[in-house]
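Q: Predict the bound structure with flavin-adenine dinucleotide.
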Amino acid sequence: MESPRRCSVIIVGAGISGLTTAKVLSENGLDDVVILEAADKIGGRIRKEEFGGVMVELGAGWIAGVGGKQSNPVWELALQSNLRTCFSDYSNARYNIYDHSGKIFPSGIAADSYKKAVDSAIQKLKSEEGNHYHDASILAETPSTPKTPIELAIDFILHDFEMAEVEPISTYVDFGEREFLVADERGYEHLLYKMAENFLFTSEGKITDSRLKLNTVVREVQHWRNGVLVTTEDGSLYEANYVILSASIGVLQSDLISFTPPLPFWPCEPEKEFFIYAHERRGYYTFWQEPVGRIFFTGEHTSEKFSGYVHGGYLSGIDTTNALLEEMRRDDGRKNESQAFLLEPLLALTGSLTSTQAETVSSLHKCDIPRQLFLSNSKLGLPEAIL
Ligand SMILES: Cc1cc2nc3c(=O)[nH]c(=O)nc-3n(C[C@H](O)[C@H](O)[C@H](O)COP(=O)(O)OP(=O)(O)OC[C@H]3O[C@@H](n4cnc5c(N)ncnc54)[C@H](O)[C@@H]3O)c2cc1C
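A: Predicted complex:
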């Protein structure tokens, strides 16, 4: 069997979150990474295709949350990459109603029809409300405010799922209420290619870097205390200290990627793949915010405030990488501490060692201590107790 390719960090997925993790790692001097991407190009849910001679976006189309006090980082990236966008004025949409022949309705007729529809919906609600108050049995059954996790979870699914979000919507509160449609022949993905130029080798707008492996589907992640081993569909093996996994909730809920040992909590029996998570905080449904050992989860679904948005993916990529860098620093600290602890009795001996033996001992600082101690035991005559 082919021996595993080795690197510091394996990144699974080259959508906005996966690419952002590679960017932040590179900014912190860590370029020894491999990016494994199942699709034939980068972008994930940011993807364009040619249709009838024009480019259409199959995934994300808007940059939502612009014009506020705080700048949306994806809007910043769009400006830096000269992405062509246009303002979406939703209040105008009601006046721009076309018939099947392509003829626009006069704005007065459109406005009247809209007003009539809203008025009739309000009337309907009012009359239903009135009926409720006359019907004592319905009044008695009026549900109380949801309190328990299960009540909160069901309330969230019934009222906020799909288009609605829990008010206030962080995207608009934090970044502003305006939205811009990406209207660029190069696609929304152009922003990702421009970003990738900073940390991957490119030539004539194409990524040529061998650290990016396209058409590479990850099927297994083995993880243990000291590292991870990733197996891809074609049987290739990749070994690293850490893995960052940016696959979506849908992929995580399928059995596409198996984990050894299994993840602590993930229902995957038949008919259980689609489930509701009940938490004491309403709307708190982002499961994978904490790493599991050496597996770090990222992606829009791990963003507490901006899940479902491109900027959610981008910001989660930054947060996850910062958490990983922090863990690496802690890991280094732990290693140094255990080296110092193990070296204490050794250093006490160095006074009586020959110069060659003393060099051997000091070089232990740079090496894998337990293994070195084991290999050097007979030469240095170390006491059994420190092995
Ligand atoms: C139709 C649609 C419209 C949208 N519209 C908007 C919008 O207008 N504005 C907005 O802000 N957001 C929008 N979004 C949401 C936005 O596109 C996503 O939130 C964001 O792109 C997610 O980025 P990500 O990196 O978290 O995940 P992804 O983009 O899903 O990246 C994950 C990557 O992992 C790869 N992968 C998965 N499994 C494996 C595996 N086993 N091995 C290797 N690789 C794997 C995938 O191929 C993918 O490239 C829309 C989404 C969709 C689907």
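A: Residues 12-18, 36-39, 44-46, 59-62, 64, 217-218, 246-248, 251, 256-257, 299-300, 308-310, 312-313 surround flavin-adenine dinucleotide (CB under 6 Å).
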